[in-house]
């Protein structure tokens, strides 16, 4: 995949590291020559020193052929303008880092009007992740779906837990909960993953 990343700060460097490891063709743009040289010498990527919001710089970086354009500079406005220019010259998918809460209420307009595929706020994402951990302190992993309406949590049933010996069909009745179990793993193997089978089998937690 052809990817252009604007901004070689902490977020940009982390993105480039993962993208390079995955084998994508990455071009980075940053106004700081030292940052560009550092990231080019560390990873197998190309680098351009310049303002990513400039039309000619983007053409030099091949944004017109990019499958993905990511702008993660420290300036929300530069990120938005960069995405607008990238859309005009042919980038297929756009991601912008936007931290100002004032823009939060305009996400739909920016997505539809400016053609930005995704707007991310790393600080808010980190805060949301901490909040999820606090809601499920015993969970090994928590994933969120449907724009935050559904949480999928992975928990380990340990010896002495109130869940030990309880069949799945009795779970809701005994604990007065609306939790839906969608998979059960025992000894590194999934016994089943079909929701339709959960209430047909009297499998108990052990």
Notes on the structure:
This protein has 206 residues and is of the alpha/beta class. Helix content is 35%, strand content 21%. The chain is built from seven helices and ten strands. The strands form three sheets. A six-stranded parallel beta sheet has the order 3-2-1-4-5-6, sandwiched between helices. Strands 7-8 form a two-stranded antiparallel ribbon. A two-stranded antiparallel sheet has the order 9-10. Helix 2 links the parallel strand 2 and strand 3. It is elongated, with a radius of gyration of 23 Å. The chain starts with a strand and ends in a 14-residue tail after the last strand. The model is unreliable at 193-206 (pLDDT under 50).
Strand content: 15-25%
Number of helical regions: 7
Average per-residue pLDDT, rounded, comes to: 80
Shape verdict: elongated
Residue stretches low in confidence (pLDDT < 50, at least 5 long) are 193-206
**What does the oligomeric state look like here?**
single chain
Number of strands: 10
What is the straight-line distance between the termini?
Answer: 45 Å
Major sheet, described briefly?
Answer: 6 strands, parallel
Helix-strand pattern, N to C? EHEHEHEHEHEHEEHEE
Strand order of the largest sheet: 3-2-1-4-5-6
- Helix-strand makeup class: alpha/beta
| Helical coverage, percent range | 25-40%
The whole-angstrom Rg is: 23 Å
């Amino acid at each position: 995949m052809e990817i252009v990343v604007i901004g070689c700060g902490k977020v940009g460097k982390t993105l480039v590291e993962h993208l390079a490891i995955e084998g994508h063709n990455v071009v980075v743009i940053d106004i700081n020559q030292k940052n560009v040289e550092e990231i080019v010498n560390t990873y197998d990527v190309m680098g351009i020193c310049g303002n990513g919001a400039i039309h000619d710089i983007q053409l030099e970086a091949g944004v017109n052929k990019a499958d993905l354009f990511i702008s993660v500079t420290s300036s929300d406005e530069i990120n938005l303008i960069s995405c607008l220019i990238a859309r005009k010259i042919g980038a297929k998918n756009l991601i912008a880092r936007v931290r100002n809460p004032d823009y939060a209420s305009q996400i739909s307009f920016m997505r539809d009007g400016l053609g930005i595929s995704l707007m991310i706020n790393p600080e808010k994402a980190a805060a949301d992740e901490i909040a999820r951990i606090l809601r499920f302190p015993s969970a090994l992993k928590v994933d969120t779906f449907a724009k935050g309406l559904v949480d999928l949590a992975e928990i380990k049933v340990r010896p002495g837990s109130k869940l030990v010996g309880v069949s799945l069909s009795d779970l809701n009745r005994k604990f007065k909960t609306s939790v839906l179990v969608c998979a059960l793993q025992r000894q590194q193997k999934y016994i089943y993953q079909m929701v339709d089978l959960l209430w047909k089998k009297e499998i108990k937690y052990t």
